[in-house]
Amino acid sequence: MTIPGPGSRSMRLAAASAAFSAALNRWVELLCAAILAVLILDVGVGIFGRYVIELPVTWSEELARYLMIWAALLAVSCGVARREHVAVTALLDRLPHKLRRQLGAAIDALAFAFFAFLCYFGIGMTKQGASQYATIFDMSMWIPFAAVPVSSALVCVQLALAGVRDFVNGAPADLAPKVAP
To answer: Could you give the CA distance from residue 71 to residue 69 in angstroms, rounded to a whole number?
Structure first.
């Protein structure tokens, strides 16, 4: 496969894909940072209440759990956008370039299918959670449960954008250029 010239339509598509991926990733990273800041404050309040004034703050642990779920699941899309997700590449690195590229595309397709599946069934789980309530907050559980379909959809978008970028650039999926922060 030949790599298109710098001014070609496909190169502009790859550049637009990379730019949108980077912008979306930046917003998700900022959201994760904000969630982690609130998480740190929340845990600090819990520690202060338990060990300094010896009065446990009962809501602190539950809020920390929900914040951690959101932060961890949103961070998955950041790893996908930067091509820094967990992978064992010992065998993949020994394959010829063309085969490595095809296998990388197949792995991305499988990952997309998995996260699309997770998103679809996560929506149903979130709907069911609307009738359940958190023990301490008396908050509907759709808010914590929504982390699954939201993060899965973000991963699908990032996989599609990275796939466009990598296909046009001619790079194998595992050797794709990292997205600038």
So the answer is: 6
